[in-house]
């Protein structure tokens, strides 16, 4: 799922998600030019913990895995919101879980953009409506989704979007076999290509640290996405637009199960 929103203050909101169960790996998988503005490396970023006990170890593992990058250092800290609300906080990533309902997605990552390409705040949501079901209520699925959604918060896109091909050995690869029990490669953590891509994204320094934007709407349910504008790939991908007035538009790109 990809979601874009531009507000009257020049704020752009973008989101990518893992959907409850399409194609080729990407040589470069940065998410446009989105990155956190900072004056030195590594980027020190707090992941706010708004999680039930069942999810906390998965965030700790994801934080540790992503911090293996030379340009990135994440720390799990206290959250400033609730799981159900998951409101963003300037300068950090709020990570949340709740039963968000039958939305079609397992997890969604959302970033708020200012100054053209700079991430100013972000949220990760994992949906207990699905993770309470036997199909997804496994350590492998929980770690895979948490790792991927946190990865989007740094400006990474997916390496591959085919659920049924051989795993690439990275959580940034869509899969129906997260722990590699069938394909032999585990998709529970980043791989070398992810770290290389982070080196490219954060290979330059900015002259400022990311500014604090206004908050923008977070739309979880398809009923909130507005008018259908385009359908492609036999209905597997669709684009919606919702206009809020005052120049605020949310564009949602969704890859369906």
List strands and helices in order, with pairings.
Layout lengths: L1 E5 L5 E8 L15 E2 L6 E8 L2 H14 L5 E7 L14 E6 L6 E10 L3 E10 H4 L7 H14 L39 H10 L25 E6 L4 E9 L2 E8 L2
Largest sheet: 11 strands, mixed
The domain count comes to: 1
CATH superfamily: Collagenase (Catalytic Domain)
**Overall pLDDT:** 80
Number of helices: 4
Helix content: 10-25%
Global Rg: 17 Å
Strand runs, count? 11
Task: Walk me through this protein's architecture.
The chain has one domain (about 1-255): Collagenase (Catalytic Domain). The protein is built from four helices and eleven strands, in the order ββββαββββαααβββ. The protein has helices at about 55-65, 130, 140-150, 190-200, and strands spanning about 1-5, 10-20, 35, 45-50, 70-80, 95-100, 105-115, 120-125, 225-230, 235-245, 250-255. Strands 1, 2, 3, 4, 5, 6, 7, 8, 9, 10 and 11 form an eleven-stranded mixed sheet that branches. The chain is globular, with a radius of gyration of 17 Å. The chain starts with a strand and ends with a strand. Mean pLDDT is about 80; it is low at about 1-10, about 210-215 and about 245-250.
The gist of it:
Helices cover 16% and strands 31% of the residues. The protein is built from four helices and eleven strands; from the N terminus they run ββββαββββαααβββ.
């Amino acid at each position: 799922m990809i979601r874009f929103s531009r507000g009257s203050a020049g704020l752009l909101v973008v989101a990518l998600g893992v959907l409850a169960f399409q194609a080729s790996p990407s040589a470069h998988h940065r998410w446009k030019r989105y990155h956190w503005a900072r004056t030195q490396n590594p980027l020190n970023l707090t992941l706010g913990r708004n999680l039930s006990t069942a999810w906390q170890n998965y965030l700790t593992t994801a934080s540790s895995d992503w911090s293996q990058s030379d340009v990135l250092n994440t720390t799990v800290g206290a959250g400033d919101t609730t799981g159900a609300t998951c409101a963003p906080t300037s300068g950090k990533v709020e990570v949340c879980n709740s039963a968000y309902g039958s939305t079609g997605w397992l997890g969604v990552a959302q970033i708020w953009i200012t100054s053209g390409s700079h991430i100013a705040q972000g949220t990760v949501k994992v949906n207990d409506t699905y993770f309470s079901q036997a199909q997804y209520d496994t350590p492998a699925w929980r770690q895979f989704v948490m790792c991927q959604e946190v990865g989007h918060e740094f400006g990474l896109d997916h390496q591959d979007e085919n659920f049924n091909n051989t795993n690439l050995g990275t959580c940034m690869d869509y899969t129906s076999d997260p722990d590699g029990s069938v394909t032999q490669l585990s998709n529970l953590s980043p791989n070398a290509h992810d770290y290389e891509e982070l080196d490219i994204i954060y290979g330059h320094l900015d002259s400022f640290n990311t500014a604090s934007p206004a908050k923008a709407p977070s739309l979880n349910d398809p009923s909130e996405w507005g008018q259908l504008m385009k359908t492609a790939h036999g209905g597997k991908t669709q684009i919606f637009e919702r206009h809020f007035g005052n120049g605020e538009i949310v564009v949602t790109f969704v890859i369906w199960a």
